[in-house]
Input
Amino acid sequence: MGCIVNLNGAAAASVRLPTPTEGDRKERGFCCFPRRHRRHHQFRPTSAPTATNSRSHSLTVTNEALNVMISGAPASGKGTQCHLIADKYGLVHIAAGDLLRAEIATGSENGKRAKQYMEQGQLVPDEIVVMMVKDRLLKPDSKERGWLLDGYPRSLSQATALKGFGFEPHTFLLLEVSEDLLVERVVGRRLDPVTGKIYHLKYSPPETEEIAARLTQRFDDTEEKVKLRLNTHHQNVESVLALYKDITVKVCSINSLLHVRTCLFNNKNNGISNPVEHLWSGHHL
Ligand SMILES: Nc1ncnc2c1ncn2[C@@H]1O[C@H](COP(=O)(O)OP(=O)(O)O)[C@@H](O)[C@H]1O
Output
């Protein structure tokens, strides 16, 4: 079994962690980091250590920050999970799509080129994306706090490029949701440009007429474009997985960190042992 890490943040790397009992795991949501990456992490807990079991194994303190990659199809719940995970561990959330949209907003040549690909639901060429992500990962906050890289890599060449620059994740999270559900979520998804809140016309409608009137839709959130993006996603994820297979954790249809923890805990041999499709309510995009 890999290194046990409590995703509830109840134990810190600066203490000797108890070996969790079965009951501990169920109650507090432990997850397993794959054996190959039984590295020494410095996790930043959100609460004080509580466990004082004498049967202990140690996590040596180093200055190494936690580095996580997360991948999932459009509307698979990545945004929600990223917010929760980054918040929990104090990680810098770096979303490739956000970096690209920011570039588009500057009106630069790279931004204009990127937009053409994004409108087609295609991957933006590596020469634009790779350097953008690399530069962001090199910023001091990413190095100091650790990072949660969202939506990158989406191809083997992107993964290999990042590896070549010396960036390696400790774990690769893959969210898996059925295609029908994804299309429905994407097509009904709306953004409130004032608050930044995401709504769904059917599952999570705006609270007032005033909010409803100002909602916007992402230019690539149409059925046609999401299907293109889904195809691209499925084609590319397999090759990326090949590179990270030893550190991949698959998570099915989740809508809260609790469910991520459940899936992480139940993950065995990189397979899916706890599909929680029924837990998905569709209310959290
Ligand atoms: N790593 C990447 N490589 C190439 N293109 C990307 C990458 N990440 C995002 N994009 C482009 O930006 C678009 C929007 O990405 P994103 O915001 O992550 O939304 P989604 O998860 O819905 O695809 C993608 O459809 C793609 O065109």
Q: What stands out?
A: Residues 1-64 form one domain.
